[in-house]
Amino acid sequence: MSKSYYRSKPAAMVVTVIALSFVLPDSAVAETDTVAKATISSARVRRIANQEINKRAPALSVGSAVSAQSANTANTANTANTASSANPILFAHVAADGTVDPAKSKGVASGNVTALAGLYCFSGLPAIMGGQVTPDLTNGLFSQFGQFGFGNALGNCPPATQFFVALIGVSGNSFAAGPFFLHLY
């Protein structure tokens, strides 16, 4: 081959490189503009994601939401409206003479109470852990307080007594008959 053939190739190569140097920067700028236009803000991404979620939300479901289904009925809350399912275990509204108001009581009857002038002895009831007594102030006696205790109070109650309630006058150490509320647990 002739020497001129080898010499023409480097010259063609120089011309090609020069031509590419003019073309490539323009395409690089064009590519940069395309990328810049394709970039979106995070707020727009969030907005698009929320739109997609809202579109698909009606068809979404939670497979383990069994407890949520049963919470819709709340059967135990409906039955708690009756005294037979309410807590405490037993409760009563006891009059000054020892009679029990059945409309305001559960599990306690007049036959369970022996009244002794401000000392009330209870028997024949299921086993309990404790109790609370609150004087009924509707009778206008604001000067008494109630005490709850197990067993026979000072030997005054009958032998089968489980627990007692003593209403005591604040002005002295004597028993004072009066109505009261009793809660047993």
Structure description:
It is a single chain. The chain contains four helices and seven strands; from the N terminus they run ααααβββββββ. The strands form two sheets. Strands 2-3-6-5 form a four-stranded antiparallel beta sheet, with no helix packed on it. Strands 1-7-4 form a three-stranded antiparallel beta sheet, with no helix packed on it. It has helices at 3-38, 42-56, 66-71, 75-79; strands spanning 90-94, 113-116, 119-122, 131-135, 144-150, 163-169, 180-184. It has two domains: 3-60; 90-184, no CATH class. By secondary structure, it is of the alpha+beta class.
SS strand fraction: 15-25%
What would you call the structural class?
alpha+beta
How confident is the prediction overall: mean pLDDT?
75
Q: Specify the number of helices.
A: 4
> Per the principal axes of the C-alpha atoms, what is the gross shape?
rod-shaped
Q: Order of helices and strands, N to C?
A: HHHHEEEEEEE
Quote the distance from N terminus to C terminus.
Answer: 117 Å
Radius of gyration, Cα only, in angstroms?
A: 45 Å
Strand order of the largest sheet: 2-3-6-5
Give helix % range. 25-40%
Q: Domain count, please report it.
A: 2
Quantity of strands, as a count: 7
